Amino acid sequence: MLNVSVLGYGTVGSGVVEVLTTNKESIAKKAGQEINVKYILDLRDFPGDPHEDKVVHDFNVILNDEDVQIVVETMGGVKPAYDFVKACLEAGKSVCTSNKELVAKHGAELIAIAKEKSINFFFEASVGGGIPIIRPMINCLNGDEIEEISGILNGTTNYILTKMSKEGLDFDSVLKDAQDKGYAERNPEADVEGYDACRKIAILTSLAYGKQVDFEDIYTEGITKITDVDIKYANALGAAIKIFGSSKKVGNDIYAKVAPVMINGEHPLYSVNDVFNGIFVKGNMVGDLMFYGSGAGKLPTASAVVADVVEAAKSLNANLPMIWENDKLQLADIKEAKQRFFVRLSGNAAENAAKVESTFGKVQVVEAGVENEYAFITDQVKEGEFAQKAEQLGNVVSRIRVDF
Amino acid sequence: MLNVSVLGYGTVGSGVVEVLTTNKESIAKKAGQEINVKYILDLRDFPGDPHEDKVVHDFNVILNDEDVQIVVETMGGVKPAYDFVKACLEAGKSVCTSNKELVAKHGAELIAIAKEKSINFFFEASVGGGIPIIRPMINCLNGDEIEEISGILNGTTNYILTKMSKEGLDFDSVLKDAQDKGYAERNPEADVEGYDACRKIAILTSLAYGKQVDFEDIYTEGITKITDVDIKYANALGAAIKIFGSSKKVGNDIYAKVAPVMINGEHPLYSVNDVFNGIFVKGNMVGDLMFYGSGAGKLPTASAVVADVVEAAKSLNANLPMIWENDKLQLADIKEAKQRFFVRLSGNAAENAAKVESTFGKVQVVEAGVENEYAFITDQVKEGEFAQKAEQLGNVVSRIRVDF
Q1: Which end of chain B is more exposed for a tag (fewer CB within 10 A), N or C?
Q2: Which fold has domain B334-402?
Q3: pTM of this structure
Q4: CB neighbour list of residue A292: distance below 8 Å, 6 or more residues apart
Q5: What are the boundaries of each domain within chain B?
């Protein structure tokens, strides 16, 4: 029997205990032995909970118990999760976490400690919820050099954009609906401003290139400026507006960003709707891959954590190598990235057409029956150059990157 | 430096050498050491090939060379691949193969030998070409009990069905086009009769339940009876006809089959077109997952083989456990499986409506402007019961399973 302890008995933590209980027998078979939850660390008590007798309030009870070989960290946030996880690893306990902030910030260091101690630090659930993506990145794509990762990495914003698109509603009313349904937090900033997706693309990019990508370096733009009128134009184009976390390798430069983007039906992520996540990966040998599933939610996320626990159990005293060095990966300046842009200008065609052509050359005009506006899609243009030209035009109502 | 040898220098085998050469540096970093191709076994010579000096005709040169630690098997077929692979494993060499016939037939035995010898037998490329699906099944879904696997597992038939659907062409002319393009073999039987997909779903089902699924036990129906008129009805329904290899767990029964099926836009595999493959997996905790990519082709398939080589290099003297026992998994009788059916009858509505209602009860009538036919979709009905009733009707022109 192998003893596990869970740090944080919130949504994901209680999901982990539920998955371990529901599938106890099949998990024991796959792990080679029974997995027992010995302690659950939380500040709260849980009277009436079937596992209430396992709840402890002092982290040291877990840290100092040599019978606890695997620790699950589902507290979220960097403090005190970082201190707890580091202490567990240094004490020779493998750690499995769903904590994207922790992994994005301290992944390289924690991986190095696990290696030194011949144990494992796993974090499948930190990106894409239940979707297997971290382990495929580490163990399945080693014949390839990664050219692009583009992911719908946040279920809340994908739900909002899908609902705006299908029902023609504006951002604020859909956000309220999402909050009422529990899909969005009362303080929705981390989701709608793209900060959550930013941590996740930082993790995926670090794994793709084996070096530390600092999420603070990633250009991040949320969905709060997307309006129902933008959606109307997208629908007229047969396109969907999604928010992507993406990184692309162009020559020796690696660009990363989080931003809304228009994609059409040719893109493998076009049909990824509602709270689902999808991650597109392009390798120089394998070509296009896509991974799809539930990017959040109690049981899907817990399923990924438990899969990590089983892997940790199968390799209790052997570090499974992965490359994520502490050296910083210098991202290229986003201003140099080339991109098509969808642009809306105030004023009609007569007022704008000549000005636009003299600024951008021939463009693709977009008609969606919106009065007193002129909308178009540019050719590929450098981000920095676009920003200058847009300022020069002076009457830009909105602009969205286009990926077709 | 680690020495690899390749058995079979055909499409996939030469692709493996190409991937190892093209991405030599990044592969060395990930594998922890340089990977060198020492021998290539083939009956033919390859004058002018950059690797011609590595070609040998005698398998024993490879078997008896203790410097060869990993063997890649890309010959295809059971004989002599089985003898060669078994001999390599018994000699302590890890083996990575793309050979679905070999894995479906002898997977359990070869996995057991690798375990006994503390080496590895890997076969990521045997299903889904370049798509990571075998390793996710083994290492990422262990928190779940698998309830369903449904895969578009054969690129040739998906190309044919996509082209029939988009261009309204009949089966024979599209098959000829596919043969001219090299997407279909001159003898297309293994693809169009579903035999290839059958091996692949046998492998996935064996891994899902940890026991041997004999492909001979799987009900297999190809696409040769699908006509342009069937496609016309599918289009009228907003549905696509795909050929699925699938297995489903209903209570304690596991049903497996290969057959054409109608799916609609709600299904994650609806947009998987042309030569692409997609595999849908449903777990009792994680819910719906989908994996998408190139299911065949030289470099995508080779990419998966090389990823296996890197994993084998990272764990040279340690067996990474997987559960696929030799015990046979008894599949449930397909006659007991419940299913909706799309049915076309000769004769018009006036002649058929009453007869159909008395046989199947209320049905969903399907209109596609086809003269002198009556088409409908049944409710859920057991396969065996449907077959009896269809025979009773006496005028069935075609029937296709419906998955919505």
Answers
A1: N
A2: Alpha-Beta Plaits (3.30.70)
A3: 0.97
A4: A131, A272, A276, A277, A278, A279, B268, B288, B289, B290, B291, B292
A5: 2-129+298-328, 142-294, 334-402
